[in-house]
Amino acid sequence: MTTAIALNPPPDIELMRLALRSSTLSHGLRVRGDRWTAEILMGAFMGLRKFEDWISLLGISRATLTKRLQQLLTMGLLQQRPYQERPLRHGYHLTQAGLKLYDQVLMIWMWERRWGSHADVLPSQLFHKTCGHAFVPVLTCSACDAKAGMNDLHFTLKPVTALLDDQAESTRSARVETLHSSSKGLGMRVDRWTLLIVTAVVLGCHHFDQIGHVLGIASSVLARRLSAMVDEGLLLAQTDLKDARRFIYRLTPASRDLFGYLVCFSTWASRDFLHQPSSIRPVHKACGKPFVPRVTCSACLEPLLPWQVSFHAH
User: Fold this and answer.
1) What is the DSSP string of 40-98?
2) What is the DSSP string of 108-145?
């Protein structure tokens, strides 16, 4: 059953379109936004090194795994090293650049533990070696060290000219997988379009035509995506009091919890991948400084580094 509400449109829908089109989030997700890449990286942080281990745990085809691993090697996020016991065979290891993805991985772990269906294959508990305590990752502001969430920020939009290319967005849509799929996996079953739709709603786009315009997504693709996201509990569809023929799409607790991943991913894409400023610029209301995320230990509030964390696996 839907609830009828009224909602004012955003003040500048065209500015939103340009900001999203030139966002480091959107450009980064073009390269690293598919679920297989996210799951391969999650496996690498969990200690997977062998090609066959990913095949076994993910249920991924050999051709797809080969392609994704090659992409990660080309990006410099993984490197191959020979095994000591079998020098002619190589394992895959995270590089220094790859280790910079750790905040994103922690946010994926946090989201999956709360909302996903594959928590049983992820580490059940994380331990911070520095303080010796079990912990959960906490998103904080690097300027003032305060815990921060989506409601603690406001956003300014400034399109990035260097990222405003003329290349049209692809609206080809893969099969929409459900979050509670019974297939194997290590991470969130949310793809690039889902994450961009959530971002558009965060920024104030709540109607079908607004979301379609700012994302440049085909109507048929958007309709399937929105329907699937409502069914999976990632969006609420509420009747617009001003026009009963339309729905207003709003975030749910599950989609709000994607914000930590989105802001960490966007920051990495801006600083370490594209080397361009973000067109979507969050500011921490409490301290008034630009918000740069930092993921810290809930026990000691210190930043988390991969080699300082151990875990209990199922």
Assistant:
1) HHHHHHHT--SHHHHHHHH---HHHHHHHHHHHHHTTSEEEEE-SS-TTSEEEEE-HHH
2) HHHHHHHH-S-GGGS-SEEEETTTTEEE-EEEEETTT-
Q: Tell me which residue of 193, 114, 150 sits closest to 293, measured CA to CA.
A: 150
What's the CA dihedral at 291, 23, 238, 255 to 10 degrees?
A: -60
Fold of 13-31+102-312: Arc Repressor Mutant, subunit A (1.10.10)
Per domain, the residue ranges of the chain are 13-31+102-312
Residue type at 164? L
Structure tokens at 303: 């930043």
8-state DSSP, 161: G
Please name which of 125, 185, 186 lies closest in space to residue 313, comparing C-alpha atoms.
125
Cβ atoms of 30 and 192 within 8 Å: the answer is yes
- Look up the pTM and report it: 0.88
**Mind listing the pLDDT tens digit for each residue in 91-144?**
999 999 999 999 999 999 999 888 876 666 788 899 999 999 999 999 999 999
Element (H, E) at 28: helix 24-32
On the CB side of 182, how many CA atoms lie within 13 Å of its CA? 0
